[in-house]
């Protein structure tokens, strides 16, 4: 059975991520992306992001169950979809696109389940049912070449508004700051904005007083894209999922996870609530009868182990 991983970009194909602020458009325009990415391994990861080929196999003819949304939850959903297909002979299609896309797809009837890596807003709760499958944290990452070990909220704000443009202003390292941010509509971006009080540049009409994330920031979609850029650009900084950061760090990605407001990000500090930026990992739906067996799998011991294997905190203990 086939589990199709969406959010992939093929050379002649447009996807949800192909927008005005394509993840690497600014780099292409300036011709500096591969100059910044220092190792062949990082370049290979980048190419995988752009040209991932879906896994294919023999699939039944009936309409598949569709899951879409947060790329933070996507690897867990893909792993459990394979398990579900093998047991039920029902096809499951898993795609990314961000938390906002997951919510919109469910509301429009395009997906049966939406993946949302943040708490739901009141208006969303009025329209959708949801279940929390686990917890994650937002962490701040820099390249291992950066001497910085800890950061405060105020410094983070000054960096992302462009007030601080050189690392020399907060350390002994005389290098320009390269900001990596997220596309509008991403759950990770919304959590970052809630914590810092910053707004995305696209919200200037709605929030004319700002303050705004610098338009000099490079915008990407998934956590993998953010981590690849920070791992390949020595003077870059980004914000990503804790689970994904630790998982890729363990595989050799040259990133450093910073202490935030004096608290080290860890499973323990997330569980005891001392880490400053914690988020829910949710599934949203309108008709539980269509997806209850899948939801049960996410909350089962097997499903919670899959979540733990990706570096997240289980909802069921």
UniProtKB/TrEMBL annotation:
Keywords: Signal. The keyword Signal applies. InterPro entries: PBP_domain (IPR024370), Phosphate_ABC_transporter (IPR050811). Residues 1-22 are annotated as: Disordered. It comes from the Bacteria. Residues 56-299 form the PBP domain. This is Phosphate ABC transporter substrate-binding protein.
């Amino acid at each position: 059975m086939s589990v199709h991983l969406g959010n992939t970009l093929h050379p002649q194909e447009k996807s949800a991520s192909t927008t005005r602020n394509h993840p690497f458009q600014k780099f292409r325009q300036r011709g500096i992306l591969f100059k910044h990415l220092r190792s062949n391994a990082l370049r290979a990861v980048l190419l995988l992001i752009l040209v991932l080929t879906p896994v294919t196999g023999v699939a039944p003819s009936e309409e598949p169950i569709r899951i879409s949304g947060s790329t933070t939850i996507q690897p867990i959903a893909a792993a459990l979809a394979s398990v579900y297909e093998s047991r039920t002979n029902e096809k499951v299609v898993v795609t990314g696109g961000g938390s906002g896309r997951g919510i919109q797809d469910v509301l429009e009837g395009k997906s049966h389940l939406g993946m949302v890596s943040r708490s739901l807003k009141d208006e969303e709760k009025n329209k959708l049912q949801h279940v929390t499958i686990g917890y994650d944290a937002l962490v701040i990452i820099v390249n291992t070449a950066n001497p910085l070990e800890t950061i405060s909220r105020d410094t983070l704000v000054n960096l992302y508004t462009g007030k601080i443009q050189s690392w020399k202003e907060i350390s002994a390292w005389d290098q320009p700051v390269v900001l990596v941010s997220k596309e509008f509509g991403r759950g990770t971006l919304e959590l970052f904005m809630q914590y810092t009080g910053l707004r995305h540049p696209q919200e200037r009409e709605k929030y004319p007083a700002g303050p705004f994330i610098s338009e000099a920031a490079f915008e990407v979609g998934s956590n993998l894209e953010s981590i690849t850029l920070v791992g390949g650009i020595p003077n870059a900084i980004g914000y990503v999922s804790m689970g994904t950061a630790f998982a890729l760090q363990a595989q050799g990605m040259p990133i450093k996870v910073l202490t935030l407001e004096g608290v080290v990000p860890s499973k323990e500090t997330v569980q005891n609530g001392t880490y400053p930026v914690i988020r829910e990992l949710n599934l949203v739906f309108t008709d539980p009868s269509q997806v209850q067996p899948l939801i049960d799998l996410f909350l089962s011991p097997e499903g919670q182990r899959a979540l733990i294997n990706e570096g997240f905190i289980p909802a069921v203990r």
